Structure formats: structure tokens, C-alpha cells
Amino acid sequence: MVRYLEENSSLSPPAVTQFNGDRRKAGIALVVIVVIAALAVVALLVAFSYYWYIRNKVRRRFTTERPTESDEPAPPVLSSCHTEAQVFTFKQLQVATSNFSQNNVIGHGGFGSVYKGVLQDGSKVAVKQLDLGSKQGEQEFRVEVDVLSRLHSPYLLALIGYCADHDHRLLVYEYMPNGSLQEHLYSDGSSGTPPKLDWETRMRIALDAARGVEYLHEYVDPPVIHRDFKSSNILLDRNYHAKVSDFGLAKLGSDKVGGHVSTRVLGTQGYVAPEYALTGHLTTKSDVYSYGVVLLELLTGRVPVDMKRPPGQGVLVSWALPQLTDREKLIQIIDPVLEGQFSMKEFMQVAAIAAMCVQPEADYRPLMADVVQSLVPLVKHLRPSSRVIGTPLHHNIVTLQSSSIDSGSSSAAND
User: Fold this and answer.
1) What is the pLDDT of residue 254?
2) Average pLDDT over residues 296-313
């Protein structure tokens, strides 16, 4: 028995070699697996770091690179900037507007009339009385109060206060004596009507409006999407400085880079981005498209939709887009009122910005921050404005958490 064990206790040399080879291969395979796993983890970490780098860069880029006071005129200083909206009684606003006299009507919004008013301290205001029979009007009231009481920029219309007295819903804004951009663009210029706007004024308005939307997109977290940006919602003060108004349809955007929120399609015909109209997917690029339409209005003097025009010219974007990058055809779309007020180079630069903003594919549209930086050189050389000179504007990031602006999700409709 002992002899049998001794004879069979040792393996032959070839068997030992094969056994050692198998162990070596197994060891090498294990090392390879460990290395691959480590590389995968490193790749994930790099990708995650790059994602946050890009996200933070987009948020901070125009804070760190904003032009100094010597580069451009300082922004307008608000005469009445309220950190909290005032609460008015219905009787106070009744007195301020002379019992909502028809003589004081200065506009009609989608959900009510707007009256000129004078408060007890003598300050002029605009009072919007919301339609009590409109469910959407109640929603607009809540959104406007929620948004404008927390967001403050020289390029947004300031909310002074509101009234929620019993069934009454009223909003009180700073008064803008020169009305809306729309009124000036489509005025016939006759006595008693708003004057036509020259090239310099239009470019200043374009820049101010772009800065207003930039603030909503870049300095609010998550970004606020206006959703109804149009020429009638751009108001002008006595010096024709523009402020973005009417936030009743505003929506909180996705806090993810490239993300969207799904919502019922609302807005104004001719200004609504095609991908939003088709899918209900709302992003900040939806506002960029609307801004591009307004820029086309400034260049052409045409309304976004006019089906009385010849075939092919009824929709402004469809008609203008093929001509925006062709110098020979570009001349044909210029508003006749602007003749001789600008160089062709300037017009082509603005037309190129408009063309990028109204691209059918949202990914090809620029950020509003890029639009602002593109417009600044076209406005800097213009004659000095009468705006109050103060310290340069540095917006702070505003974080919105709970809000009546329901941010929703990318998979369900909200409204």
C-alpha cells in the first residue's frame, strides 16, 4: 500500500508544467479583468467630472467674463426695486385707477385689462385686472406673484404688488410710458400713434430683451422658461429701454443639462418653437426661438403670421430664413423704415444671429448668453444713452425650490 502511494504521489514533469501554465493564465486573466474594471471606473469618474465641469461652466461663464464698466454702459438702475411685493386692497387700486375708468385703459392682456394708475405717494403704476371668469387667469396671477416677487433684474418688469381681496385678482407693475415694442413696430407713424423706431433704438431694445431672457435662463436655478416671449411682452420705459413682461405662462425648466419638461403647449402662434408645438417638450431653447422671431420683427417690420400676404410669405420665419444668409436676397427683407440707417455688415450680423435662433433643430440654436455677447459689439458704438450710470450689473444665482410654477418631469404633462 505504501509503495502504491509513493508511486502515485508525484506527477510527471509534463503534468506539472501544464498545471503551472494554467495557474499563470488564470492569474493573467484576473489581472486583466481588474485593470479593465479599474479603467471603467476611472472613465465613469472622468465623464461625471466633465459633466459637472460643463454644467458649472455654463452657469458661471458670463459672471466671470462679464465686460467691465469700461467695456459697455452700465445697466439702468431701477427707481423702485422691491424685495417683497406689496399687498394692496381692492379699494386702494379702485382709487388709483379712478374706479377702473375706461379712460385709463392702456392695454388688454390675454387674461384681463391693464389700467394706468397713480398711488397715494404719487407714483405711476400699471394695474392688471385679471378676468374672474378665467381659470387660466387665476393660474397666471399665482405664477406672476411667485416669479416676480423673487426675481429682480433691470431687464424684467418689476412687480410692485398685488391684490387678492376676496374674489379680486390684480397685479401692480411699474409703469412703462412708451408701451410695448409691438405698438411701435406696427404703428403707421401718424399723429397720436407711437413713433416708428430707428435702427439704433431697435438694436438697444434687442440687447435689453436678450439680457432679460438670459437672466431667466442663466441666473435662476432651475431656469425659468418664459414660454410667451413676444414683441407685445417687451415694454419700453421713457428712454426706450426694454423690459420683459408677462410671466403668466412661465415654467420651471429642467435642472439637467439638455433636459426638458413636458407640458401642454401654450403660447402665441408664430412664436412657438416647432419641437415644443409638436411634442410638448419645453426647454430654454424654446425661448431662444421666440426671441429669434422678435429679432426678425425688428429687422423686417413684419408680424410673425399674416396670411393676407402672397403665398409663401404668410409665416415670417419660413419666408425669411432662406434669405437671411444670402446677401443679395437679404436686402429684400429689410423694413423700408430703416433705409440708410445702418451698414450692410451690421444688418448681416444681426440677420445671422436671428437665423441661428430660429433654426428648426433646437440643438443648433445658441444660448441666450451667446446671443447677448454677439449683440454687445453692435450696440457699444451707438450714441450714449440716457440711462443712469451706476455700478456694473452682476446678477446673483437665484434658486427656486417650492413654487406655484410646477416644474414637473420629463415624462408627464403638467398644466
Assistant:
1) 80
2) 95
Whole-angstrom distance, CA of residue 296 vs CA of residue 288: 12
Helices (H), 189-230: 199-218
Strands 281-282 and 261-262: antiparallel
**In 176-250, at which residue ranges do the beta strands (DSSP E only) sit?**
220-221, 224-225, 234-236, 242-244
For 227-245, what is the mean pLDDT? Answer: 96
Q: What is the mean pLDDT of residues 175-199?
A: 91
- Whether 409 has a pLDDT exceeding 70, the answer reads no
Q: Is 57 annotated as a binding residue?
A: no
Question: Residue 171 pairs with which residues in a beta bridge?
Answer: 128, 162
Cell of residue 274, nine digits: 416647432
pLDDT surpasses 70 at 400 = no
The residues that bridge with 112 in the sheet, in sequence order, are 109, 130
C-alpha separations of 16 from 23, 26, 251 in Å: 11, 15, 74
Record the cell numbers describing residue 190, joined without a space.
401718424
Cα–Cα distance measured from residue 56 to residue 50, given in angstroms and rounded to the nearest whole number: 10
- Gap between the Cα atoms of 406 and 227, Å rounded: 14
Q: Output the CA–CA distances (angstroms, integers) from residue 326 to 347, 352, 357, in the order listed.
A: 12, 10, 17
Please state, in angstroms and rounded to a whole number, the distance separating the CA atoms of residues 398 and 223: 9
Q: Is 390 a residue whose pLDDT tops 50? A: no
Q: Copy the grid coordinates of residue 179.
A: 408701451
Cis peptide before 222 (omega within 30 of 0): yes
Instruction: Quote the cell numbers at residue 342.
Output: 445702418
Residue 50, C-alpha cell as written in the block? 466633465
- Chain mean pLDDT for the chain: 80
Cβ atoms of 173 and 245 within 8 Å: the answer is yes
**Catalytic residue (choose from 22, 167, 198, 228):** 228
Active site residue 237: no
Question: Shortest CA distance to 302 belongs to which of 323, 287, 282?
Answer: 323
Average pLDDT over residues 252-256: 79
